[in-house]
Design brief:
The chain is 54% helix and 4% strand. It is mostly helical and 248 residues long. The chain has two domains: 90 residues, DNA polymerase, domain 1, CATH 1.10.150; 133 residues, Orthogonal Bundle (hpI Integrase, Chain A), CATH 1.10.443.10. The chain has a three-stranded antiparallel beta sheet with strand order 1-2-3, with no helix packed on it. Helix 6 packs antiparallel against helix 8. The longest helix is centred in the N-terminal third of the chain and has 18 residues.
Length: 248
């Protein structure tokens, strides 16, 4: 198979398993990245070359964390075992053992400083949704106007992690911000998606992460903090206010 045919079959393999669209995008994106790196038919890449890619390139050169390297490893295993139907010895490309770390959460002072310095209303609304409703970044990108239930004060989350659907809370401040955002940034094209870019296309996760890092630097917050940290703050706040771990 050509690299293009591999990508096409890989997408079909994922759809047959009903993976979420986040997984489609991630697996296809990382596979294309590897194809560019090896610069030859992916079927010709050896296990030894994959080992060097994971350890020397991703870990030593790019200095990616164990968690991220394991994501790449999962893509490689799926492509080899499922799409290319190759028998592999997984002991030759083992998953990295992850260190148990205490999740970073921001203090109320840090949160206050961060949101006060966030002068772009679109991204401020996005970050407030992650913090106030516990949404993942991909869930914000996929948020539709019809998902907002202002009467019940809840948000319908479609195609969440593991392709699962759920409801989450909608704080009054987030609803107020969403209404102002929709009034000021109403899409010029016919779509139910809430957050679009300047080209009226669904906003990219990378752009959201870039904006977060921009305001994180302004607020002089630790570089360990990410957009997902706001979600950890959401869970922490629920527990501090009496919610059980099962509810969270």
């Amino acid at each position: 198979m050509t690299n293009g045919e591999v990508l096409e079959k890989m997408l079909q393999d994922m759809k047959m398993r009903n993976f979420s669209h986040y997984t489609y995008e991630f697996y296809i994106g990382k596979t294309k990245e590897m194809m560019r790196y090896f610069n030859k038919p992916i079927e010709e890449v050896t296990i030894e070359e994959y080992r060097d890619y994971l350890y020397k390139h991703l870990l030593q050169e790019r200095k990616l964390c164990d968690h991220t390297v394991n994501h790449y490893n999962s893509v490689i295993r799926f492509m080899l075992e499922v799409t290319l139907d190759r028998l592999i010895n997984k002991k030759q490309i083992p998953m990295r053992k992850r260190k148990k770390e205490v999740y970073k959460v921001l203090t109320q002072e840090e949160l206050s400083t961060f949101f006060s310095l966030c002068d772009n209303y679109k991204f401020k609304t996005i970050f407030m949704l992650v913090y106030g409703s516990g949404l993942r970044i991909g869930e914000v990108v996929n948020l539709h106007k019809s998902d907002i239930d202002s009467k019940a004060m809840r948000i319908f989350v479609r195609e969440g992690k593991g392709n699962k659907e759920r409801y989450t809370i909608l704080p009054k401040v987030s609803l107020k911000m969403l209404r102002k955002y929709w009034k000021d940034y109403r899409p010029k094209v016919k779509t139910d998606k809430i957050f679009l870019n300047d080209l009226n296309e669904p906003i990219n996760q990378y752009v959201i992460r870039t904006q977060f890092r921009k305001y994180r630097r302004k607020a002089k917050i630790s570089e360990k903090a990410t957009v997902h940290t706001l979600r950890h703050n959401f869970a922490t706040n629920l527990i501090e206010n009496g919610a059980s771990l099962i509810q969270v």
